[in-house]
Amino acid sequence: MELEARHGVGGIDPHKHSATLAVVDRQGRLVDVASFPVTPAGIDELLESLTDTELVIDRIGVEGSAALGQPLAAALSAAGYDVREVQPNRTAERRRRRRRRAKTDIEDAEAIARETLADPHLPPAGKHAAPEAAWEELTAVHDWRDSLILQRVRHLTEAEAVLVSLPLGIQSQLPSTSRVLPQLEMLATFADEWDGLSTADQVRLDRLLAALGDIRLLTSRIKALDKRIPSLLERLGCTLTEICGVGPVTAMDLLVEVGDPCRFTTEAQFARWCGSAPIALSSGEGHGPARRHRLDVGGNRNVNSILHIVHVTQVRCHEPARTYVARKITENKTKREARRAHKRQLANVIIRHMWKDEARRRAFPSPLPATS
Q1: pTM for this one?
Q2: Is 350's pLDDT higher than 60?
């Protein structure tokens, strides 16, 4: 009589040029540890080692599956493995609990494997098993736009510190506003009228005028990218903009962060992934439902922030949302609890939209754009 095959899970700690794999069995015993180069040959070697192991691998946890671990997660998914995302803060918490735990690639891979073993409800890894060209282009536009916005914010922040160091005679002629850009615009209109400035003040003035030019250039590039977003959303069959409070930029942010919506099989799984599902914080109910809950500070904070912005917009100008929040308050919910409940409902609405869009896109794929 053949022995029943043992089961286990794997954990991968990826880096730029190498990845370390640890395999533990169902009892938590470390079975194997090995490192592989992040190259096509190295990934093939990793897959072969998983096939040759004496365990049946139920799940594989990958840290940073949408960043450094993306090629590994894609290869494992294509090979048929159940690949999950293990957030770095989970392994860091494990090290804090075991204060003398070392920090090496082997230790990290083992910690990732143990987290994968301990929690079968970890979110799916990666964003797309095989991303299409339109989504990759949208991601590139999203990343470039974010970079331009950060550069513009840095210029504005630095300009604000220089503005307050100008002579009081110049400051008194600037608009009395906390916004930096109107002050820079006004400064540029009569910058040639000031005489007798010290050399230090002249350098500061030149710096502010140069910053204004950079800000204008960055703004023009951001606007040019914004014009490309609607056509990309149309190619992807996105209807998220039909939701009140979701514009083209917000829809782009959601598509880039979520990726393939079908990797979430239930609304509850998506809500847990984006941190909109409350966590039970109660005692004394026995086997009954929990009466008190608290905020989930985990999950994807970018999507959670988007949910908050959409909530604020809908409460201001969308009557169904205002009615929903008012009803929750009449049910003895605090304003904070009502807001969290509405964000949870918004998570359901968004993932349903994305599921329908993806099903429609797969049923009726759009033709590739013509190339010159």
Answers
A1: 0.78
A2: yes
